[in-house]
From TrEMBL:
Coiled coil: none annotated. Belongs to the MYG1 family. This is Myg1 exonuclease. InterPro entries: MYG1_exonuclease. It holds the Pfam family MYG1_exonuc. It comes from Seriola lalandi dorsalis. Signal peptide: none annotated.
């Protein structure tokens, strides 16, 4: 056994050399080594105050403040958004209503009674708060009152998407995604948290499976023995984050590329039919509706498009009516009423069009074995509407 005593005269360099020697001895199977260090005898070396200050600042953990107790979808989503940013990646989430503790946070969401972007305070509960996306960004159309999710998305959304997609903040595609994800994801959370209905009057049925409802179900039940909400809030953040990322992936990898397909089809529509009211997609499954409405405005399409044609998975063809709007089951022009609910030979005999397969009872879609047959179904409907405009939408 080798025993070494390091005294105050031993330099740090010598300590390092001795440690190397000891490792050598220790590596031999029949040897053992004991290092006895008199720590009080080693003269300490101090970091300069400036270096210590910089080190301390670099090691400071950012804090995101939000309220404790029952949690909701909006603050769970706001916290998720912030944690995707490099600045808040490793931040601590402080759930409290204590003003003194909130004052120590770098950003506060959904609590505190303040909306002050310069100080990163994003609450919407105060009586004076009436902001919407449109009121804060007049070039945007949405007038739904913002929750903490919408406030954080509005101020950090482009930075968030740039981080997640690797697109630049001034990229046109990023702006399209920014708008799309607010309109089809965040705005719903804003509206529900602020108690804004989708419609006026009594609803016909209840939807209880939306994201906000599922987040709410993660809170403890009123009669549970434990009323702790910390684990539930973590699960809520994970849930809303996964759904947001799933939406983003779909819009970036599938929905955005579809715009190119739809734009080409709109530009080529007069080659499909002289009326310009029928477009053809070479592949099934293309998400076309939102792009079609947007492109009609951008390209200043005079005669609204009534039908789209596309092949189905069985290499047969579909003729589908263009709806009157994105959120309605009414059509700009439905397939002929007398065809609805009729199939196969009976439909071909009734319509005078070969190879018919079906027309849905709702009149919004039909099928034919060939592209020419599907196009003829659209043409006959257009001709009938021109002679009797009462056919219209239904």
């Amino acid at each position: 056994m080798i025993v070494l005593k390091l005294t105050k005269n031993t330099s740090l360099t010598n300590i390092s050399k001795l440690a190397s020697v000891l490792r050598l001895y220790n590596s031999q199977a029949n040897r053992c080594c004991l290092l006895s260090v008199d720590a009080t005898c080693i003269k300490p070396r101090y970091m300069s105050s400036e270096a210590k200050r910089l080190c301390s600042e670099n090691m400071t953990v950012k804090k995101i403040g939000t309220h404790n107790g029952t949690f909701h979808c909006d603050e769970a989503l706001a916290c998720f958004f912030l944690r995707q940013l490099p600045e808040y990646k490793d931040s601590e989430i402080v759930r409290t209503r204590d003003p003194a503790k909130l004052a120590q946070c770098d950003v506060v969401v959904d609590v505190g009674g303040e909306f002050d972007p310069k100080r990163h305070r994003y609450d919407h509960h105060q009586r004076s708060f009436k902001e919407s996306f449109h009121s804060l960004c007049p070039e945007k159309p949405w007038v739904t009152k913002l929750s903490s999710a919408g406030l954080v998305y509005m101020h950090f959304g482009r930075q968030l998407l740039a981080q997640l997609t690797q697109l630049k903040e001034d990229d046109k595609q990023l702006e399209v995604l920014y708008d799309k994800l607010y309109e089809n994801f965040v705005e719903e959370v804003d509206a529900i948290d602020n108690g804004i209905s989708q419609w006026d009057g009594e609803v016909r049925y209840t939807i209880s499976s939306n994201l906000s409802a599922r987040v709410g179900s993660l809170n403890p039940r009123w009669n549970s023995k434990s009323q702790d909400t910390e684990e539930g809030f973590k699960k809520a953040m994970k849930m809303v984050g996964e759904e947001f990322l799933g939406k983003l992936d779909y819009y970036q990898s599938a929905w955005l590329p579809a715009r190119v397909v739809v734009e080409e089809a709109v530009k080529q529509r007069h080659q499909v039919d002289p009326s310009g009211e029928v477009v053809l997609f070479p592949q099934a499954g293309c998400p076309w509706k939102e792009h079609l409405f947007a492109l009609e405005k951008e390209l200043q399409v005079e005669a609204p498009i009534k039908f789209v044609l596309y092949p189905d998975q069985n290499a047969q063809w579909r003729v589908q009516c263009v709806p009157a709007g994105l959120n309605t089951f009414e059509n700009r022009l439905s397939l002929l009423e007398e065809w609805r609910g009729v199939r196969d030979e009976a439909l071909s005999e009734l319509s005078g069009i070969k190879d018919c397969i079906f027309v849905h009872a709702g009149g919004f879609i039909g099928g034919n074995k060939t592209q020419e047959g599907a196009l003829e179904m659209a043409r006959r409907t257009l001709q009938a509407a021109a002679q009797s405009p009462a056919n219209g939408s239904s």
